[in-house]
Design goal:
Length: 139
C-alpha cells in the first residue's frame, strides 16, 4: 500500500491499495475532531480523484474518535460522500483492538447510514487482509 497522507498528530493516515482499487483511512490513538474531519474530507477527495468506491476504515489502533465527528459523519458527510461517489460504496471497518466502546460507536454509525436508505455494502473485521479480500469480492 502507498501512503498518501499522515497528519502531524499521527492519528490519521490515508493509504491506497492500487491492486484492490481501495482507499484506507486509518485512525490511531485519540483522534481530535479537526483531524477527523480533515481526514474524512481528504479521503473523499482522493476517492473521487482515483475513482475508487471501496473504502476501508481502519480503527484497529484507535482509542477514540470524536463523538461530534461521528454525528457530523452521519448527518452531513456520509450523505454527501454517498452522492459524490456515485451511490456505489463498499465499506469495510477494521474494529478497534483498544476500545469496545469505539467498536460499538462505529457499528452504530454504519447502521445509521444504512437506515438512511443508502445502498452501502458494509462489513466488519479485525484483519486488513480480510478487509481487502472482502472489498474486492463484494462488488
Amino acid at each position: 500500500m502507498t501512503e498518501l497522507y499522515l497528519n502531524t498528530n499521527q492519528t490519521a493516515r490515508i493509504l491506497r491499495s492500487k491492486p484492490n482499487e481501495t482507499i484506507v483511512l486509518k485512525f490511531m490513538g485519540v483522534v481530535l475532531v479537526e483531524d477527523y474531519k480533515f481526514a474524512m474530507e481528504l479521503l473523499l477527495k482522493l476517492a473521487k480523484e482515483y475513482q475508487y468506491h471501496r473504502i476501508i476504515f481502519d480503527l484497529s489502533d484507535a482509542e477514540s474518535t470524536p463523538a461530534i465527528g461521528r454525528a457530523w459523519f452521519i448527518t452531513q458527510y456520509g450523505p454527501r460522500a454517498y452522492r459524490e461517489l456515485g451511490k456505489k460504496l463498499t465499506v469495510c471497518m477494521l474494529l478497534s483492538q483498544r476500545s469496545a466502546f469505539q467498536n460499538k460507536a462505529s457499528e452504530l454509525v454504519a447502521r445509521s447510514m444504512q437506515a438512511l436508505k443508502m445502498n452501502i455494502n458494509i462489513s466488519f473485521t479485525d484483519d486488513m487482509d480480510n478487509a481487502l479480500d472482502w472489498c474486492a469480492k463484494a462488488d
